[in-house]
Specification:
150 residues, alpha+beta, Heat Shock Protein 90, two-stranded antiparallel sheet, 4 helices
């Protein structure tokens, strides 16, 4: 995938505000709705929402609201890739996800009981997307990558 060139690339920069989510979702709909099935579109939209709100609430928690969050959508022949770029402290996605998957839920008298309040977004992103990765760049930025086959 890294050697493939995207057919199209779209970029957006937003401030670190939850109120920016409305603009993000409108931008994403204008791009992705025509390229994905209804189910894949809604899955990507939910994963993007989680990725963006995590950047606002966690990665940029102690940063000014003017700190930008950069977003990209890359369209390949068979894949739609979403990138969420932040300037926060890095974290170990694999370890955090593994912890969340182990704690996710258990059955109590036939009912599903959530074990934790937070961290469900990572599990949702993992379950909804075909690929979920995260890396830190040398210039101290983080990139969350969400991929969905189309």
């Amino acid at each position: 995938m890294q050697n493939d060139r995207p057919i199209q690339e779209f970029s957006l920069q937003l401030k670190t505000k939850l109120e920016s989510l409305e603009d993000l979702l409108a931008w994403f709909e204008s791009i992705a709705f025509k390229y994905l099935s209804d189910q894949a579109y809604w899955q990507c939209q939910l994963a993007l929402t989680e990725g963006f709100t995590n950047a606002v609430r966690h990665a940029h928690k102690n940063l000014p609201a003017t700190t930008p969050i950069d977003l990209k959508v890359l369209l390949f022949d068979r894949v739609l890739e979403i990138q969420v770029w932040d300037c926060g402290q890095p974290f170990d996605l694999e370890a955090e996800l593994q912890t969340r998957l182990e704690q996710k839920a258990y059955k109590l008298d036939g009912n599903l009981v959530e074990l934790t309040e937070g961290g469900r977004g990572l599990v949702w992103m993992h379950e909804l997307m075909d690929d979920l990765t995260y890396y830190r760049t040398p210039n101290h930025r983080n990139c969350l990558i969400l991929r969905k086959h189309r």
